[in-house]
Design goal:
- The protein is α/β, with parallel strands linked by helices.
- It folds into 2 domains: 265 residues, Alpha-Beta Barrel (TIM Barrel); 67 residues, Antifreeze-like/N-acetylneuraminic acid synthase C-terminal domain (Type Iii Antifreeze Protein Isoform Hplc 12, Alpha-Beta Complex), CATH 3.90.1210.
- The strands form 4 sheets. Strands 7-4-3-12-11-10-9-8 form an 8-stranded parallel beta sheet. A two-stranded antiparallel sheet has the order 1-2.
């Protein structure tokens, strides 16, 4: 079902562990020291990448009086969305330091671009992929700016209907994007269990068979991510923080290091459990046949030259002797040697 996708030297595809992205997003709260500590924590969780968001508030928010409501450790917070974006803006000048810190920690640095200038910045920083958020699925100028940069694109599909996803995919391809991953995403924070719609992963894979599919998880807990891997997701993205009690719009629904470490282990284990889908058993299981299956044996003494009848035979463990499928063929044959009770029957015992 899934196709392949590569980020740097890491190949994503059937038989490979899922690519796990720790979405710091805005949880750094504009504090570079906090951002760096989150990078270090994500690396300690053995995530593949840590992701931030690159914007300038004035280029994103038009209505500076529109308010946004979110829960944090102090209760429900309500503030102008522009103020929130401005406070959590990650200056362009700080990106290089964060990228270099990621390299020192052995983890990839990713970020979501929001306009042509941020695309230029991320490309200039030689990031291995560009993320485009669900809110920009319909942002044609941004899609055009990212499409022709010869960089893999990861596009979230939250809130998108089929026609909008089709349009975005078509636009990226027409613009020159050759390596694309679509992320199933539900833009509810947190996402209730009954809204997760994980089967959409399969639906996306069927509609876009030549595009890799991943999952951006906004549910609480790790169960949805594990199920997503079982359904074919090649990458898992989940919000990450070092402390859920920090102020900010995403902290409370983010995974802390303990939970994220468990997530990384569980989704990689789930991927390993998928196997390759072969119907025939593998070598270790084939070896178990002797112990657990039955073979054809004599259930009484059978002198040589005796015509064998059904009541002289039994199926018993271990699986020595002929396969049970030959039971009917043996009936009516003559014993070629003397057989004792529980002796296995082989073709050389028969005439």
């Amino acid at each position: 079902m899934a196709t392949e996708f590569s980020i740097s030297e890491r190949r994503l595809g059937p038989g490979s562990p899922p690519y796990v992205i720790a979405e710091v997003g805005v949880n750094h709260n504009g504090d570079m020291n906090l951002a760096k500590s989150m990078i270090e924590a994500a690396a300690n969780c053995v995530a593949d990448a840590v992701k931030f968001q690159t914007w300038r508030a004035g280029e994103v928010i038009a209505d500076k009086d529109m308010e946004y409501e979110y829960p944090d450790a102090k209760g429900t917070i309500r503030e102008p969305l522009y103020n929130l974006f401005k406070r959590l803006e990650l200056p362009f000048s700080e990106h290089l330091a964060l990228r270099d810190h990621c390299r020192r920690q052995g983890i990839e640095f990713l970020s979501s671009a929001t306009d042509a200038d941020s695309v230029d910045l991320l490309v200039d920083l030689e990031l291995p992929a560009i993320k485009l958020a669900s809110g920009d699925l319909t942002n044609a100028p941004l899609l055009d700016a990212a499409a022709g940069r010869n960089v893999p694109i990861i596009l979230s599909t939250g809130m998108g209907d089929v026609s909008e996803i089709d349009d975005a995919v078509g636009r990226l391809r027409a613009g020159g994007c050759e390596t694309l991953m679509l992320m199933h995403c539900v833009s509810l924070y947190p996402t209730p269990d009954d809204a997760a719609n994980l089967k959409r992963i399969q639906a996306l894979a069927e509609r876009y068979p030549d595009i890799a599919i991943g999952y951006s998880d906004h549910t609480l807990g790790n169960e949805a991510a594990q199920a997503a891997v079982a359904l074919g997701a090649l990458a898992i993205e989940k919000h990450f923080t070092t402390d859920r009690n920090l102020p900010g719009p995403d902290q409370a629904m983010s995974s802390d290091p303990k939970d994220f470490s468990a997530l990384v282990k569980s989704v990689r284990r789930a991927a390993k459990m998928l196997g390759e889908g072969a119907i025939d058993p593998g070598a270790p299981e084939k070896d178990a046949r002797v112990e657990f299956r039955r073979g054809i044996v004599a259930c009484q003494a059978i002198p040589a030259d005796t015509v064998i009848t059904r009541d002289m035979l039994a199926l018993k463990r271990p699986a020595h002797g002929l396969h049970p499928r030959y039971l009917e063929e043996i009936i009516g044959r003559r014993a070629g040697t003397n057989l004792a009770a529980d002796d296995p029957l082989y073709w050389e015992n028969l005439v």
